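Q: For a teaching session next week I want to show students how multiple molecules come together into a single three-dimensional assembly. I've collected the sequence lines for a complex. Could you give me the predicted structure tokens for the whole thing so I can convert them for display?
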Amino acid sequence: MPAGKSGPRGFVRDLRLRWACEEAGLGYEVRSVPLKDRGPEHFARQPFGQVPFLEDGDITMFESGACLLHLARKSEALMPRDAVGEAETLQWTIAALNSIEMVTVPWWFIGLSADADNPLEGWVLKRLAHLDAVLARREWLAAGRFTVADLLMADVLRVPKVRAAGDFPSIRAYVDRTCARPAFKRAYDGQMAHFAAHDEPA
Amino acid sequence: MPAGKSGPRGFVRDLRLRWACEEAGLGYEVRSVPLKDRGPEHFARQPFGQVPFLEDGDITMFESGACLLHLARKSEALMPRDAVGEAETLQWTIAALNSIEMVTVPWWFIGLSADADNPLEGWVLKRLAHLDAVLARREWLAAGRFTVADLLMADVLRVPKVRAAGDFPSIRAYVDRTCARPAFKRAYDGQMAHFAAHDEPA
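A: Of course. Below is the structure for the complete assembly, covering every listed component.
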């Protein structure tokens, strides 16, 4: 699974895939793709010019969320095998992508340059408040246990600017306990070590 | 699958589920949820207070994208059964949710109130340009055939403001041919008829 050559270390999305493989005990290898000079070969694998993408036998996939659901089919450590547990895991995985990240990422992006009011501020706070209410009543999002939905949701929520948005104690505790998992630490350390090993002169 | 009581007729997301059921020949029934006075019972089923959600035997799901992937597992009309075709369908379904809609929906939302420059304009146009390049070279997104990924992507792209963004002839032709499918027309007509039958005095 090629990672980005530069970018925000510790937050590039290959971390999600590393983390899933670590939770599931799946072997993996990470290669780099230069951020500069991405050519037709890169766009052929990732039509939006991003990372990561995943190679697994005959299968090549982009979209970290899709890669996570693909990996989750391989291991009960990531997703229960019963139909109801699988459906709950699927719905919360999609919620992380399309109800939370769909608001937090554009909000974060606008915040990079806007010095005035962020037009997405109210929406972000409302979505996080709904999620905080859910997490006040349960330890994990789906099926009463840790699943790939928690892995993804925690990765969406651990972004420093998102963590600092509003006062959501249940979200804070949830991110802390999810990122305290040894598999997260191995994935995080792995990404940082990868960047360090592949540093190039500027 | 309960739909919203009001909202933008013809674009409420239960249409995605109606369309999938129509493509797959799955029987379904749609019920309404009042938009006003959504109480704890509604939030228990849909933590963000939205629609649609799906009831299927023991399974209750929210997130239209998750519901679509759930329905796609039931019918080869929505997703091929081979591993590579399934992976391609999954990646493009997630791309519709997290690479396209993650930009188009906040951009549309900001455009509702902002009279100045939309800070997401450049990002939207870039994402659509990448997608237009993909669609210039193929009829359907995944597996060389219509899949649930096309259903979702076309629904994301057919929003009038998105259709009017930039000049992307391959996207325009793609949305036209996807929405020309009889199953889309039945789903659309069904949603409009549902609203008409459930009109209440303002």
